[in-house]
Amino acid sequence: MAMDAAAEVDHLAAERAAARFDVEEMKVAWAGSRHAVDVADRMARLVASDPVFRKDNRTMLSRKDLFKDTLRKAAHAWRRIVELRLTEEEANLLRLYVDQPGYVDLHWGMFVPAIKGQGTEEQQQKWLPLAYKFQIIGCYAQTELGHGSNVQGLETTATFDPKTDEFVIHSPTLTSSKWWPGGLGKASTHAVVYARLITEGKDYGIHGFIVQLRSLVDHSPLPGVTLGDIGGKFGSGAYNSMDNGVLQFDHVRIPRDQMLMRLSQVTREGKYVHSDVPKQLLYGTMVFVRQSIVADASKALSRAVCIAVRYSAIRKQFGSQDGGPETQVLNYKTQQSRLFPLLASAYAFRFVGDWLNWLYTDVTQKLEAKDFSTLQEAHACTAGLKAVTTSVTAVARILMKTVSQLASGKQPVGTMAYMGKVQYLMQCKCAVNTAEDWLNPVAIQEAFEARALRMVVNCAQNVSQASSQEEGFYERSPDLLEAAVAHIQLIIVTKFIEKVQQDIPGDGVKEQLQNLCNVYALYILHKHLGDFLATGCITPKQGALANEQVGKLYAQVRPNAVALVDAFNHTDHYLGSVLGRYDGNVYPALYEEAWKDPLNETVVPEGYHEYLRPLLKQQLKLSSRL
Amino acid sequence: MAMDAAAEVDHLAAERAAARFDVEEMKVAWAGSRHAVDVADRMARLVASDPVFRKDNRTMLSRKDLFKDTLRKAAHAWRRIVELRLTEEEANLLRLYVDQPGYVDLHWGMFVPAIKGQGTEEQQQKWLPLAYKFQIIGCYAQTELGHGSNVQGLETTATFDPKTDEFVIHSPTLTSSKWWPGGLGKASTHAVVYARLITEGKDYGIHGFIVQLRSLVDHSPLPGVTLGDIGGKFGSGAYNSMDNGVLQFDHVRIPRDQMLMRLSQVTREGKYVHSDVPKQLLYGTMVFVRQSIVADASKALSRAVCIAVRYSAIRKQFGSQDGGPETQVLNYKTQQSRLFPLLASAYAFRFVGDWLNWLYTDVTQKLEAKDFSTLQEAHACTAGLKAVTTSVTAVARILMKTVSQLASGKQPVGTMAYMGKVQYLMQCKCAVNTAEDWLNPVAIQEAFEARALRMVVNCAQNVSQASSQEEGFYERSPDLLEAAVAHIQLIIVTKFIEKVQQDIPGDGVKEQLQNLCNVYALYILHKHLGDFLATGCITPKQGALANEQVGKLYAQVRPNAVALVDAFNHTDHYLGSVLGRYDGNVYPALYEEAWKDPLNETVVPEGYHEYLRPLLKQQLKLSSRL
């Protein structure tokens, strides 16, 4: 049960009773283990029951009050973590359920990992204990006003001064102002700052430096440091609790040993030297951050789908005869064709996220042993799954490279192993004859493999006709993007199929996941039908059969839909949505919430006497100048 | 020139100089006439130059302050309209450029039209002068907490009491509360309220009634009337200036003559009688509202595209060699493949909106002459173009009906005339052999006609196999939706082709519009390639040629992109975007804006002493209970 309080009536009880599977076991399948369910449940309830963590008033707070509330929650969360002696796992979950972006996210998620990954042993011993105890608060100052994804284009400089054994950190232009770092605007005392290292007159490119920004006595910015918040953000203010910041340096000096020196050092004399630690270690951090983003995406989607499915089961519209009750919106096929693919996607992303997590662990272990064989693939897969355009190029490039090496007999491995079947996949014919044939995972897998491979091969052929490879990549980049997306969708489908082929305990749990796996695959097939037809992987008739089958699958998902979102085990506090309440008692709650708006503090609104009454009474004063 | 102030440097000057067409003439093509350009320009500047209408601080105002600001702007706009004796056209444009949703939108856009459309001559003579002079403020109270699109499901009752010659307006349930009407929450004195008319114990369904809600003396709600605002809305608060409201009636009495009686009346004795005015007249209003929504969509898209194109020309990322300047984001093919179809869509929607406007005028004239022949099509087309799911069913139904009548030899007309070529379109083969062949409007038009018709015919066959037509419609509704979308896209493409076949003055203007027309059509073809291939309208090879051609078209659009969005003639005030500034001077403006956030009023944030300092000093007080 994921309810915050005992509800008098469960308006979704009939939906829950109709489900044909064991919801408790599905929670285990979703969370990964019984332990994971239990600890998450405990932390979610701890947060939901604590009045300091209330967030239903969040949209009504001014920016300043919201920020103050964020500081309060962060301090209170830390207090509870200390008091209850929470484990790291528990503490992370507690922060997750507090569900209000703030400086602590960057402190734990970026500042500490940067020092761990890029700092020497000595640097770690000096700085990490301070960070662990919150004696300093850190953020990650990379992005600049004029420079985002292209880290090599950053303009901030760190010039070594051998006279004083210091680096001089400086912002030479307006566009070099650090811009966006979370926690920077108001909260952080320190930052890992990325800047161009200049020593002996030479620019050695971007390196990280630990820089103190604010006084530990009174929190005022140190001399030469200009700090501020960059202002409100889009999206109903969900991210306005964060003090994303702007930062400028005017020749700020830091000791030489605050350069993060694990990979390279500047000596007392100003010589730039590489350590024997391989540079690739840095990519491990990027793989970690990206796999977290995929996990976060799955979580965010599961919350949205949970709200949408529950409300669609409560909301009724049309379909009544002579004033009888209207039809639940969730019963409409058009609504199902929108929601159920998203429901299936939430599960699909969850399972591919698990796999990415494994991949990260595997890469890390191999990196420690200086085995870089899987790093490039992990880099490409996480970038692709993160689905940021610029990074998707990485996927496209590795695909082009793999295809070009097929002729030489080099067997691709990992997620690209299917390309080894190039002869077969280039000419295979889909064997589907009936709609039910599409329930066969072999048919689905082969169609997705053939589609991805044929698109990749097409791209490779087109690129090879250009005057240069770079020119070919430039001209064909939209096609490369589509091929990369096909490859990534194949991975998601494959990992989902692998998941449902495992033993999964609980009545009906495996069957539900099989349905969702088929919904996901056949929905993607329908959405990208042009790809499958253009490459001749399936026939129009087979495409129509897939569409017919997905309609049948929707009918099977329908009675289980509410229970399938219950299995996410989200508390009402975490969902933060009247429409998505566990008990479905939407309308009275919606009505009650409305009256809390500040605009309802007075019956006659402020401004009536100045701006409405004169209008209504035809007493508007005209301008004197007329 | 659409600049608010003289800029010192035009950072987009090079882009503008590279354009190969007459921007001033393109403004005329976009706006519809030289007069339209001039009057819009005059009103936009009037608003932009008036400090009362500033809106750059809007996101920083609290809900109450924002609402008060909206009241102020509305009063000031009315003052200017009166002072300057603006025409109706000028007044409408002035309100458009004030660009802050508020009660006046509903007063002029819904309250007045409802009385005009549904009121008798006497009712119009009584109420319209009051509304025209703002002696009353009106809104449109239809939607209820539990009932949206399905108007026939509304629960509010209006029961005739023959003893007092009054209607008793009542909200029998919580879900019958009026919910969402703009201007209702705080500003309106009156509303057109939709309620179930009950007389002589019989329910005659939904009718409109003019109901006074607030005292004209002190603006307090009248007895039996509960009024409030429904609270903040999603979307960065763009709509929080509007007082969307909640309204409940507790047996509120109104005189019988406040029922809107143009179509039907209740007599002094309580008899329900129809007038001889045909019911279809009501649909005219819906057609009008929907065509406004299409026009608004085009306007909104043009603003977004203008901002995105300008910023993409300013923003640089990657592509530099050895620290040289980076590449304009607008030069990336992937960016072009995202932005240029939207740029083309803005123009496409603009021209189909013109056509809808003509259609509305035509329908209205025919309705006056009691000719209902084109009403159904206008209803379906506007609903489809409005693209609201529930209403798209209307499109699908008229398509099914038209197809089913083909066998009887009935020739379809209007936008469905192409279905008369059923024999040809069901078996025609696309003649495209080269990428350039796709520049032929005949080839495009035929492919879109064949695709739409074949999808409609497929649906009709599938629906006919169901046990009943209703069952077939229900089961096949996602397919019907896709067929309806194909039909609507055909209309948009057709109207764009018709537009560019007209004489269009100005150097290069016609050529640019031809490019955009082709971009729009070939982009849709690529996006929905599955439809075109599955129905055999084109071959995979022809699909690849279309994709190749669209890439070439992007290269032709690229040097004209900034000038093409300049042609929308949006002022900086109207755009309200630092990123979309006319002069492209983005970074200093962004930097300057940031400091205005209330969070930057103090260097050390509020909450530091309570929540940050104790944390940093390890002095967090633990709970006493531990």
Number of domains of chain A: 2
> What name does CATH use for the topology of the largest domain in chain A?
Butyryl-CoA Dehydrogenase, subunit A, domain 3
CATH superfamily of the largest domain in chain A: Butyryl-CoA Dehydrogenase, subunit A, domain 3
Q: Strand pairing plus helix content of chain A: what structural class?
A: alpha+beta
Name the quaternary structure.
homodimer
Q: Could you give the distance between the termini of chain A? A: 69 Å
Estimated share of beta-strand residues of chain A: 5-15%
Rg estimate of chain A, integer Å? 28 Å
What shape does the CA trace of chain A take? globular
Task: Name its key features.
homodimer, 626 residues, alpha+beta, Butyryl-CoA Dehydrogenase, subunit A, domain 2, Butyryl-CoA Dehydrogenase, subunit A, domain 3, 6-stranded mixed β-sheet, 3-stranded antiparallel β-sheet, 22 helices, 51% helix, disordered N terminus, fatty acid metabolism (chains A, B), Acyl-coenzyme A oxidase (chains A, B)
Walk me through the structure.
The structure is a homodimer of 626-residue chains. Chain A is of the alpha+beta class and 626 residues long. The first copy, chain A, folds into two domains: 111-277, Butyryl-CoA Dehydrogenase, subunit A, domain 2 (Beta Barrel); 284-565, Butyryl-CoA Dehydrogenase, subunit A, domain 3 (Up-down Bundle), CATH 1.20.140.10. Chain A has helices at 13-18, 23-31, 34-48, 63-83, 88-98, 103-118, 121-132, 281-314, 333-368, 375-386, 389-406, 422-427, 441-464, 469-475, 477-500, 509-527, 529-534, 540-557, 561-566, 572-575, 586-594, 608-616; strands at residues 138-141, 157-161, 166-170, 178-179, 190-199, 202-212, 225-229, 245-249, 252-255, 264-266, 272-274. In chain A, strand 10 and strand 11 (272-274) form a beta hairpin. In chain A, helix 6 (103-118) packs antiparallel against helix 8 (281-314), helix 9 (333-368) crosses helix 16 and helix 11 packs across helix 13. The longest helix of chain A has 36 residues, at 333-368. The first copy, chain A, is globular. At the A-B interface, helix 4, strand 7, helix 9, helix 15 and helix 17 of A face helix 4, strand 7, helix 9, helix 15 and helix 17 of B.
